[in-house]
Amino acid sequence: MISDRTFERIENLFDISLLKNVRVLIAGCGSGGASVALQLVMSGIQNFTLIDNDTLEPENVIRHVCGRRFIGQKKVDAVADVLLDRNPNANIVRIDADIMNYPNLAAEIAKSDVVVLATDNEPTRYTINELCVRHQVHFVVGRVFTRGIGGEVFAYRPQSGGCLACLESLLERTQYREGVKEIDLVSDDEREKVYGMEIAEIKDSPGLAVDIGFITSFHARFVLDSIAGQLTDRPKYLIPIDENYVVWGNRPVHPFAKHFQLQRINLSPQAQCAVCGSGSGSNV
Predict the structure, then answer these.
(1) pLDDT (tens digit, 9 = 90+) per residue, 163-186?
(2) How many domains does the chain fold into?
(3) Is residue 227 part of a domain?
(4) CATH assignment at residue 31
(5) Staple partner for 28: which of 53, 101, 119, 217, CB 3.0–4.6 Å?
(6) d(CA 168, CA 163)
(7) What is the pTM for the complete model shown?
(8) Rounded to an integer, what distance in angstroms lies between the CA atom of residue 214 and that of residue 230?
């Protein structure tokens, strides 16, 4: 039986059975969320809930884990197929819905061990941030910067770390995002000046697959760290990650000075945060 040997090459790293009850919610099944989901299923995670209402288009496949045979399918179905191909014993719930308008979003988050936040807009990120804080559920968010020059990954750790609103408050007062703009934050004039393309086309142009790959690897590793920290027996080779926020530069484009530049930050809850509203400030 195929499943008997599926994980034999990583069984020495940790007991896969420890992960059998872990529940992961994938919020956004684009190139980022799908890649993280694939890495997680290959790490032994079995229970997934996928939320997205997009359809896989021809222009998606050059960066997405789902290839041309999935064109025209809903992303939740296409990603589920890819995950089941790696582990046919995976349990996958597919929710074809707009995250902002899905009435059971809070309930889905509340029953998850960790949320993979991989949407491409601020409203969904902050909605999920608030729900995770309310229900004390871990989440990890990853973002690729414009043109794939780099990206960032942030992990919310209930009781010990700040939330996404804390992070944004901190970054407004620091140099960490100086010169870095997500495509959602770039003005229409700048988009046209830099790219010479239509806004709809630019919005989905974060960089090459290899650029995204660095960020999704950090993203998946932080998700595994969140999961491991909640297990009764932590896998011995999954050493805890001290920081909860990293900024990665793919190449020497401002504000990055060199290829593969990494900044590590440990963000504590911000006392003035309107969402989590606790803590005594950052220890950056």
Answers:
(1) 999 998 887 655 555 555 544 444
(2) 1
(3) yes
(4) 3.40.50.720
(5) 119
(6) 9
(7) 0.87
(8) 25
